[in-house]
Amino acid sequence: MNLNHLGIYPRTLNGLKGIVFSPFVHGSVEHLYNNTVPLAVLIAFLFHFYGKAALKVLLLGVLLSGLITWLIARPSYHIGASGIIYVLASFIFFKGIIAKHYRLVALSLVVVFIYGSLIWYIFPIKDDISWEGHLAGFVAGLFLALVIGVELPPDRKYDWEDPEYREDEDPFLRHFDEKGNFIENPDGKKDPDEPLEIRYHYREGKKD
Predict the structure, then answer these.
(1) What residue segments make up the domains of the chain, in order of their start?
(2) Any residues with CB less than 8 A from the CB of 105 and at least 6 apart, and which?
(3) How many CA atoms lie less than 13 Å away from 28 in the CB half-sphere?
């Protein structure tokens, strides 16, 4: 079944429908498989780390990358979900760098490590690949990273980071003396509810 007519055909009114339908159309099972795995991984990253903004990024990324492809691409049917892959990879990378949060920066480095080679396919190195769709996705992801605000993960703060923190009032540290020795009962008080325990140790006498 040939569904290429549902792809994006640049600069024609009829070709605009491909902005919505083209991500679902692939030329072969191999083409579908090659897009499915990275798409699943990047969507999982997006929703885990950018939960509240994830759906907005995904929907706007589909529309924006499709529209850019419609504007700049060669006169041909452009199909496949690879443009969305470039949207997600670009957004996750640039947003982590812009946010400067250590977890998001680490995620950016992970994306570069796994999918860094994708950068070559935004250039016309193969005639049968829609490099225009890849470029459109890359640009759309960068744009969304610049304009969409995200809620940063909260930084974990410990009690000892508080400027008013006092070691002598910390219930845990009070169990250690200045030499680091453990003190079982730093207050020297006996718990009145603690039962008294008496242990007898018997030792057999030596036989003559």
Answers:
(1) 4-147
(2) 96, 97, 99
(3) 3
Please tell me the pTM assigned to this model. Answer: 0.75
Q: What is the tens place of the pLDDT at every residue in 184-198? A: 776 666 555 667 677
Does 4-147 carry CATH code 3.10.180.10?
A: no
Which tokens belong to 90?
A: 């670009």
What's the Rg (C-alpha) of the chain? 31
Helix/strand/coil percentages in the chain, nearest 5: 60, 0, 40
Distances (CA, A) of 105 to 33, 131, 152: 28, 27, 12
Residue in the structure block whose two tokens are 């036989």: 207
Q: For residue 16, give the nearest of 25, 7, 28, 24 by alpha carbon.
A: 7
* Phi, psi of 182, deg, nearest 5: -80, 135
Residue 113 clears pLDDT 90, i.e. is over it? yes
Q: Alpha-carbon distance 135 to 73, whole Å?
A: 10
Alpha carbon distance 75, 188 (integer Å): 86
pLDDT, tens digit, 9 for 90 and up, residues 82-108: 999 999 999 999 999 999 888 899 999
Distance CA 188, CA 197 (A): 18
**Is 133:73 a contact under the CB 8 Å cutoff?**
yes
